[in-house]
Design a protein that fits this description.
17 strands; binds zinc ion; alpha/beta; five-stranded antiparallel beta sheet; 399 residues; single chain
Length: 399
């Protein structure tokens, strides 16, 4: 049996005035997803359990079959796994953004998409200035960096993702709770160092947002997740994604992480290359998980045209070739679903259950309707505990 799961990140949405009351899925030309929904079935799954913030870390973990209530320990530990940073059970990982705060207001959670080299220099000098035993910075891509703590300090802190407080005063959202003093001190000291730094001066002079400080959030211990093979009995899995977070999940699940030239998190990504790589990986792997970030990024920019184009590219260049490849195997199954909705109207992640469609061996067709939020919500197939969807899929819709 061969399995393919394709995730158009944040592609689900609400009806839009600009689209005469249609959602981007309904406005897009998606013959392959429609075929999957018509030959097989569609329904909804709640991938963000009550009490969790809607985000790809929670939602993807859930649809991979792991209950976030049991396994989710934070976003930063998943990114640490992607970088293969060794962690013991008691170590802490914090996401360490480089951000632009002007007059106490969060202006940019990405410090103008600061370069890797600039980020490395700033964090190296910050580490030297702080001289805090147990704390270690790990630079990632651009503004996305990590801070690891190995020591006896205990943390029970509340932090805030900086992308959720655009144009808001930062004072309200500083780390709070047990152990937060040291985190605030690191943020304060970074502010003093970065303000005078020539990198900041140069960025301002050339019209770029400077990194005015670090922002710590998303903390947690390493999650203790059983390997996918142990949990579901599927032997060899592979992940194809342009996003660190999902690479981290794949590492924790014991899957291969495959790369594709030109794969990015935006609409400039190499859709055709990803489609080819996903189809080719089915030769050696039992399950291939292919994730595309572009529709989510377009939604955060309220760019519905690009969102529709991204959905159509995914259908044509990824779902189509993968479906064609699967039909060459005696037994196969495919599922397409966004991890969570990202709503153009609010530019934020939504909480509505996500729509899925699946087809293949032993998946019986129930209602013949094209794939859409409305049609999947009308189906009586509602998976309230989203982590149960994986089992349902692997068994061909027979629970
Ligand atoms: Zn998003």
């Amino acid at each position: 049996m061969k399995y393919a799961i394709i995730i158009p990140d944040g592609a689900a949405d609400e009806p839009l005035q600009e689209l005469n009351g249609k959602t981007p899925f309904e406005a897009a030309n998606i013959p392959n997803m429609d075929r999957i929904a018509m030959e097989g079935r569609q329904g909804t799954a709640r991938t963000v359990p009550d009490g969790f913030e809607s985000g790809s870390d929670v939602a993807t973990m859930c649809l991979l079959g792991y209950d976030p209530k049991v396994y989710h320990t934070g976003r930063a530990p998943l990114e640490a796994a992607a970088q293969n940073i060794p962690l013991s059970r008691t170590d802490w990982v914090f996401r360490c953004n480089l951000v632009t705060v002007i007059d106490g207001v969060m202006k940019d959670h990405s410090a103008g998409g600061i370069s890797d080299a600039e980020a490395q220099t700033l964090l190296k000098e910050l580490s030297r200035k702080l001289d805090l035993p147990g704390f270690e910075f790990y630079t990632g891509v651009s503004y996305r960096n990590l801070l690891v703590y190995r020591g006896d300090e205990e943390f029970d802190v509340t932090t805030k993702p900086p992308h959720e407080i655009p144009d808001e005063p930062t004072a309200k959202y500083l780390p709070r709770g047990k152990g937060s003093e040291i985190l605030r001190r690191i943020m304060d000291e970074s502010r003093e160092l970065f303000a005078r730094h020539e990198i900041s001066q140069t960025r301002i002079q050339t019209g770029h947002n400077p990194a005015t400080q670090v922002w710590l959030w998303g903390q947690g211990h390493a999650p203790n997740m059983p390997k996918f093979t142990e949990k579901f009995g599927v032997q060899r899995g592979a992940m194809i994604t342009g996003v660190d977070l999902l690479r981290g999940l794949a590492v924790l699940l014991g899957w291969d992480v495959l790369n594709v030239d030109g794969m990015t998190s935006f609409h400039d990504t190499n859709y055709a290359g990803q489609g080819k790589a996903t189809a080719a990986a089915l030769d050696d792997c039992d399950l291939v998980f292919s994730h595309i970030e572009a529709p989510d990024e377009a939604s955060h920019q309220a760019d519905w045209k690009t969102k529709i184009a991204a959905i159509e590219h995914i259908d044509k260049f990824i779902v189509g070739p993968v479906l064609e490849k699967l039909r060459k195997f005696p037994e196969w199954r495919i599922m397409v679903l966004p991890d969570h909705p990202t709503n153009i109207a609010t530019r934020k992640h939504g909480y509505a259950p996500t729509s899925f469609c699946m087809a293949g061996t032993r998946v019986k067709s129930v209602v013949k309707a094209p794939y859409s939020e409305k049609n999947s919500a009308a189906s009586d197939l509602k998976v309230e505990r989203g982590h149960e969807l994986m089992e349902y899929f692997l068994r061909g819709g027979n629970l």
